Structure formats: structure tokens, C-alpha cells
TrEMBL record:
Entry-linked CDD domains: ABC_TM1139_LivF_branched
Organism for this UniProt entry: Knoellia locipacati
The protein's name: ABC transporter ATP-binding protein
Domain of life, source organism: Bacteria
Cleaved signal peptide residues: none
Lineage: Bacteria, Bacillati, Actinomycetota, Actinomycetes, Micrococcales
Domain ABC transporter: 5-236
Keywords: Amino-acid transport, ATP-binding, Nucleotide-binding, Transport
Any single biological process term in GO: L-amino acid transport
Gene Ontology molecular function terms on file: ATP binding; ATP hydrolysis activity; branched-chain amino acid transmembrane transporter activity
Length: 237
């Protein structure tokens, strides 16, 4: 299995405050890798840095062997790395379809219609409501839209920032089972979650982030069984 993403000794700071304090991890092709941690652990900061929206203070990020830590964000999308952000960040006044098309901005080929259909196959509600203003969608529907939009760039690696946040258990199940579907279709996934159970169940590999440092790693199953994870993240005594 080849390494798709390699993050090495990554440090990210906001002014004098270090939010990420020297983390290293890898994502292999075809895997779902989960990064879990509580509020403020540095999960979003890590994803935003990989996407090129923030610059590291030190360390390196390689995507398919190529360093990307100085590459502009739009070029990173073109290389095949997409980010579905926390809080979804959809465009509320635009229609569902217009939002999806924005996800294809970096594409130059002519298959965009086919990919729209693939997004509608993945989440039928997006197709049924393609002309509806996205701002009128529920939280779960907006999450589906954000994932569909990220898939429109045909990513090799999809990064999902807390897709389960604020969703009903049923909606969460739908969104999470899509993670498995996308993996089966050949997409590699880096999943950031506070919901350790949902994220680790699906993960080939997981990392636990605490105040900017990786404190534990292992297979998803190993982490779900570990006492530390059970106590801190699954609320067990
Ligand atoms: N723009 C910013 N300016 C200053 N500090 C920031 C900024 N964004 C995040 N931080 C700080 O960096 C740390 C890591 O934040 P980050 O959002 O990466 O955590 P997180 O693990 O994604 O948390 P959450 O699950 O709450 O989203 C926190 O202490 C946060 O307050």
C-alpha cells in the first residue's frame, strides 16, 4: 500500500500560540484514517494546514510524495485533495446544484455532468432538491451537500471535518455510511471527529490528538478497546 499523505513534525501557530505541536501521521491509499480529539485539540487546524489555508511554522506535508506545504490551496485541490470543512460552509443563497458546481471549480475536463449525477446517486435528496436554496437545508442535508461538493473535485483524498457534528442519530448513520461507500468506490479518507465511536469503527488507523500532540495511535479496533479512549472519549468509567 502506498503512502498518500505524510505529515511530519508539523507545527502550526496562531501568533505565539502553538495549536499543533509537532505531529506526524500517515494516510495510506484506500484507507479511512481517523483523527479524534476533544474541543481545541488542533484537528481543524491540522486539516486547514494540509489544505493550504494555513501555513506551518515548521514540519512538512507530502501528498503522493510531493511537498505541498508551500503550495497554494487551489493547486492542492487540483492535485486531488479535497476538504469538507467544519460547519459545512455552504453558500446559503445559491441552489444545491450551484453549490455542487463550485466544488468542480478546479476541473478542466468535461465530465462534470456525470459527477453531478454521482453526487445525486450518493445523496438522492440533493437531486430531488437541486434547485432549492442551500440555506434552507437542515444541518444533515447541508452536511450531505458539503460532502457532495467536496467529491465534485474528484479527490483522491477526501478530508472530512466533523461530519457528524449536530446531526440526529439517523442522519449521522446516513452520513457515516457514505464514508464507507466512498472508500469502497476508491476514495482515501481522512476523517476528523469528536465522535470517537463512529470514527474509529470505520478506521483502518486512528490517531488521538490532545492539545496539539498525538498521544495515542493504532488500528481503529485497538483504539476502541483501549482504556484511555474508552474513558476519555466514550464516557466509560
Ligand atoms: N484563528 C485562530 N486564532 C487563534 N487561535 C486559534 C484560531 N483558530 C484556532 N485557534 C486555537 O487553536 C487551538 C486548536 O483549535 P482547532 O480549531 O484546531 O481545534 P479542534 O480540535 O478542531 O477543536 P473543535 O473540535 O472544537 O473544532 C485552540 O486552542 C483554538 O482556540
Amino acid at each position: 500500500m502506498s503512502t498518500m499523505l505524510e505529515v511530519k513534525d508539523l507545527v502550526v501557530a496562531y501568533g505565539k500560540i502553538k495549536a499543533v505541536k509537532g505531529i506526524s501521521f500517515t494516510v495510506d491509499e484506500g484507507q479511512v484514517v481517523s483523527l479524534i480529539g476533544t474541543n481545541g485539540a488542533g484537528k481543524t487546524t491540522t486539516l486547514r494546514t494540509i489544505s493550504g489555508l494555513l501555513r506551518p511554522a515548521s514540519g512538512s506535508i507530502r501528498f503522493q510524495g510531493k511537498r505541498i506545504d508551500e503550495t497554494p490551496a487551489h493547486d492542492i485541490v487540483s492535485l486531488g485533495l479535497a476538504h469538507s470543512p467544519e460547519g459545512r460552509r455552504i453558500f446559503p443563497r445559491l441552489s444545491v446544484e450551484q453549490n455542487l458546481l463550485l466544488g468542480a471549480f478546479a476541473r478542466r475536463d468535461g465530465d462534470i455532468k456525470k459527477d453531478l449525477q454521482a453526487a445525486y446517486d450518493l445523496f438522492p435528496i440533493l437531486g430531488e432538491r437541486r434547485a432549492q436554496a442551500a440555506g434552507t437545508f437542515s444541518g444533515g442535508e447541508q452536511q450531505m451537500l458539503a460532502m457532495g461538493r467536496a467529491m465534485m473535485s474528484r479527490p483522491k483524498l477526501l478530508m472530512l471535518d466533523e461530519p457528524s457534528m449536530g446531526l440526529s442519530p439517523l442522519m449521522m448513520k446516513t452520513v457515516m455510511s457514505t464514508v464507507t461507500t466512498l472508500q469502497e468506490q476508491g476514495t482515501t479518507i481522512l476523517l476528523v471527529e469528536q465522535n470517537a465511536q463512529a470514527a474509529l469503527k470505520r478506521a483502518s488507523k486512528g490517531y488521538v490528538l490532545e492539545v496539539g500532540k498525538i498521544v495515542l495511535s493504532g488500528t481503529g479496533a485497538e483504539l476502541l478497546e483501549s482504556d484511555e479512549v474508552r474513558k476519555a472519549y466514550l464516557g466509560e468509567d
